[in-house]
Amino acid sequence: MSVQDRDRRWVARLIAEERLAAAVLLVAGAIGIIGAQMLGATATHTLLHPHIAGRILDLPWFAADGLLVTFFFVAGLELRHEFTKGSLTSVRAAMVPSVAAAFGMLVPALLFLMLAPGSARAAWGVPMATDLPLALALVAVAGRGLPLRFRAFILSLAIVDDALSILVIAVVFGGRISIPWLALTALLVVAYAKTQQRSNALAAVVAIAAWLAMLHTGIHATVLGVALGLITGRQTDTWRNRWQPFAGLVAVPLFVLTSLALPLSTSDINPRLITGITLARIIGKPLGIMVGAMLAVRLFKPNDSLPARAYAVAGSVAGLGFSVPMLFADLGLQSPLVESVKIAIVAALVGCGAVAAVALTCLRRTALAR
């Protein structure tokens, strides 16, 4: 099988898998919002913080700091695949989605800071991140017939976006760093790199130990997920096939459900905030990604590039954000702003989805799709 055929099968498989994950994700979000309004504040809090064996279980914390690590572990595995076998194997090819992803995060954040009311500017990280399942699902539905290189660019862009989001979380939203715990975590990561070459079961035990240590470092535990994925060198596809269904169909939906399970009032609806996040995504994402991609193409001259309009459409698709922006909101904001931001995230998702679907349909009708 040729490299191109293998890459085509890899991209097609990921897009097919993420369609179901995106559907489950949206259903979970709807259940969280609607259920919280029906149950009220007291019953919702009881469900999210149940008493089990005399202890109170914090489900939102467990979903964000525990289950969500598996999603970023899968993202790390996919990033490693792209670096070793996919579209990022050469430096020149890797620079285009990498620079585009960086600009696609910087421009929306700056635009949001210009548009948002002063009290809401703490939410600058929310417009930055792309939602990989939603982006690939939209390409699968509205982007049928588009060439492999466009779909591969979307995939690489979204994976790099996830990695950069984790970097922002580590640098900006970490607490006071504990050097002893960080050193212990690093030792366990090295141990994982060694043990996963010999025993999957032992590697899993070491990974859990590393996660427990990571909880005490002051750095968000999801950072560990990407790190473990990147250093998994043995049976990478096997590990991904094993964990992707759990991450996409269980971990991320439960995180979104618990994150959106907030009893809301009309006072939580902030039109300026909704406008700021929506415009930052609809305008900032395509502009940033197009400028970043074209700059990288000019500087690094890759063998295979796309027209500027294709990069702009890819930016529209990358404007879809749900689970990772929710994580930014949970980590960086306090009530009542966090409730308003989450409403804005949902509203922006609807607007960005409509714009991206139209953009994909128009692109399909151009010479690029023929």
Q: What can you tell me about this protein's structure?
A:
With 370 residues, the protein is mainly α. The chain has a single domain, classed as Na+/H+ antiporter like fold. The protein contains 14 helices and 2 strands, in the order H-H-E-E-H-H-H-H-H-H-H-H-H-H-H-H. The chain has helices spanning 3-39, 41-48, 59-84, 91-115, 132-142, 148-172, 179-195, 200-214, 222-231, 236-260, 271-300, 308-318, 323-332, 337-364, and strands at 51-52, 55-56. It has a two-stranded antiparallel ribbon with strand order 1-2. A hairpin with a 2-residue loop joins strand 1 (51-52) and strand 2 (55-56). Helix 7 runs antiparallel to helix 8 (200-214), helix 12 (308-318) packs antiparallel against helix 14 (337-364) and helix 13 (323-332) runs antiparallel to helix 14 (337-364). The chain starts with a helix and ends in a 6-residue tail after the last helix. The relative contact order is 0.18.
Topology, element by element:
Blueprint: H1 3-39, H2 41-48, E1 51-52, E2 55-56, H3 59-84, H4 91-115, H5 132-142, H6 148-172, H7 179-195, H8 200-214, H9 222-231, H10 236-260, H11 271-300, H12 308-318, H13 323-332, H14 337-364
Antiparallel strand pairs: 1-2
Helix pairs in contact: 1-2, 1-5, 1-10, 3-6, 3-9, 3-10, 4-6, 4-11, 5-6, 6-12, 7-8, 10-13, 11-12, 11-14, 12-14, 13-14
What is the CATH level 1 assignment?
Answer: Mainly Alpha
What's the SSE pattern?
Answer: HHEEHHHHHHHHHHHH
How many DSSP H or I helices? 14
Total domain units: 1
> Whole-number radius of gyration?
20 Å
Secondary-structure class: mainly alpha
CATH superfamily: Na+/H+ antiporter like domain
Tell me the CATH topology.
Answer: Na+/H+ antiporter like fold
Arithmetic mean of pLDDT: 86
Fraction of helical residues: over 70%
Beginning-to-end CA distance, first to last residue: 25 Å
The shape is globular
Q: Can you summarize the main beta sheet?
A: 2 strands, antiparallel
Q: Which regions contain 5 or more consecutive residues with pLDDT less than 50? A: none
Largest sheet: spatial strand order: 1-2
Count every beta strand, where a strand is a DSSP E run of 2 or more residues.
2
CATH architecture: Up-down Bundle
